[in-house]
From TrEMBL:
Cofactor: [4Fe-4S] cluster
GO MF: catalytic activity; iron-sulfur cluster binding; metal ion binding
Entry protein name: Putative DNA modification/repair radical SAM protein
NCBIfam families to which the protein is assigned, alphabetical: rSAM_link_UDG
The species this protein was found in: Aurantiacibacter aquimixticola
Keywords, sorted A to Z: Iron, Iron-sulfur, Metal-binding, S-adenosyl-L-methionine
Listed Gene3D superfamilies: Aldolase class I
Superkingdom as given in the UniProt entry: Bacteria
Length: 414
């Protein structure tokens, strides 16, 4: 087989990395190259973002170090039994590529993952070496996110955290049974043990930083994880419960959800088609409700349908409100912030503005309408000075009234 050049490797390994959704670049400490020291910044200034054909904003060089893998996870396109083109970067090649892209103003940092080659420890050493070259040899101050390997030696994972802004360990699937069935080489207890070790290292680094000015930082952007949605029989209720436990147990910055996508030469144990992308979207909305709107996990689970999945035609917040209509309407001039956050159509910013405005005057429906995209969605659930929904809140067809209207697109429309 002829040797691949750098662009050919990039084509293969960037495409292979697209299935990992957990590549945000938020929450880290600020660094820049002011004064001519080092290269790069984590503040995003001077970075121009490239856009993929499907509209995604790409600001990180997102690649695998290699798509060779000794594991045979059924859902993974890079599993050892998969018939795909293989490629591999050396740590020096990955570092050089990152620097080249940064100097051309294409990216703000690196998201690096990898298949498992030779062994977990060998692969982790290669990823750590890539980060070391960037940080120590080139004084790179941009963002680095390393996808760590739970089977690797804890000391190697610790070294990764010393170089990276954020580290992540994928739990892969929502249930232990699903992981055992679809990823026989992986172990749920081992994955969570590695996540626990990262949590303790982050906490220890923060404590040391309070006492010692020059204490080394450890993954200041925290850790995250990802779950695949729709590859097994887990319901949305199972996924929400798992995500909540992970947030509580490991103080994660984010849980990412990735809708299962059929892969070439797929295993017979996998679904024949992908779940609706809207399901992934609804899970992100439910995650938002728990993180920013004060919903308990059990309340989000209460918004699910009989099959344990969130409705696809309406968002989880509206689904919960329709199931618990006795909690509404709420008076925008008197209700607590917690109850206003439960009103469908009112976001955190709108609620804060309502609370600030009502200190000075009694709010009317028109005042609320100025703070929301659609007052139609809000009206059945609030009381204002000049508005009461009367029987509107209890209408049997309220869901149909508030659900987004489906439109048939024209094939030859201009």
């Amino acid at each position: 087989m002829p040797a691949l050049d750098t662009l050919q490797k990039l084509e293969i390994l960037a495409d292979a990395a697209k299935y990992d959704a957990s590549c945000a670049s938020s929450g880290t400490s600020k660094r820049n190259s002011t004064g001519g020291k080092g290269i790069g910044s984590t503040e995003g200034m001077g970075i121009c973002h490239a856009y993929a054909p499907d509209g995604r904003c790409i600001s990180l060089l997102k690649i695998l170090l290699t798509n060779h893998c000794i594991f045979d996870c059924h859902y993974c396109v890079n599993r050892k039994s998969s018939n795909v083109r293989r490629a591999r970067f050396t740590p020096q090649e990955a570092a050089d590529l990152t620097l080249t892209f940064y100097r051309r103003n294409y990216i703000e940092g690196l998201f690096l993952s990898s298949g498992i080659i030779k062994s977990s420890n060998h692969t982790m050493e290669q990823m750590v070496e890539t980060a070391r070259i960037l940080r120590e040899d080139h004084d790179f101050r941009g963002y680095i996110h390393l996808k760590t390997i739970p089977e690797a030696d804890p000391e190697l994972v610790h070294q990764a955290g010393l170089y990276a802004d954020r580290v992540s360990i994928n739990v892969e699937l929502p249930t232990d049974a699903g992981l055992t069935r679809l990823a026989p080489d992986k172990n749920a207890a081992q994955i969570e043990g590695a996540m626990g070790g990262v949590k303790m290292a982050i906490r220890q680094a923060k404590d040391e930083k309070k006492r010692f000015k020059h204490a080394p930082r450890f993954a200041p952007g925290g850790q995250s994880t990802q779950m695949i949605v729709g590859a097994d029989a887990a319901s949305d209720a199972d996924i929400v419960g798992k995500a909540s436990r992970l947030y509580d147990s490991f103080k994660l910055r984010r849980v990412y959800y990735s809708a299962f996508s059929p892969i070439p030469d797929a295993s017979a144990v996998l679904p024949l088609k992908r779940p609706p992308l809207m399901r992934e979207h609804r899970l992100y909305q439910s995650d938002w409700l728990m993180r920013f709107y004060g919903y308990a996990p059990r309340e989000v689970m209460q918004a699910t349908e009989a099959d344990g999945n969130l409705p696809l035609d309406i968002d989880p917040k509206l689904a919960w409100a329709l199931k618990f209509r006795e909690s509404f309407p709420v008076d925008v001039n008197r209700a607590s912030r917690e109850m206003l956050l439960r009103v469908p159509g009112l976001g955190v910013k709108a609620v804060n503005q309502i609370i600030a405005s009502r200190r000075h005057r009694t709010l009317r429906l028109d005042d609320v309408a100025k703070l929301t995209v659609s007052i139609t969605k809000v009206r059945p659930f609030i009381v204002a000075l000049d508005w009461r929904p009367l029987t509107l809140t209890d209408r049997t067809d309220l869901r149909a009234m508030l659900a987004p209207k489906q439109e048939q697109l024209e094939l030859f429309a201009a």
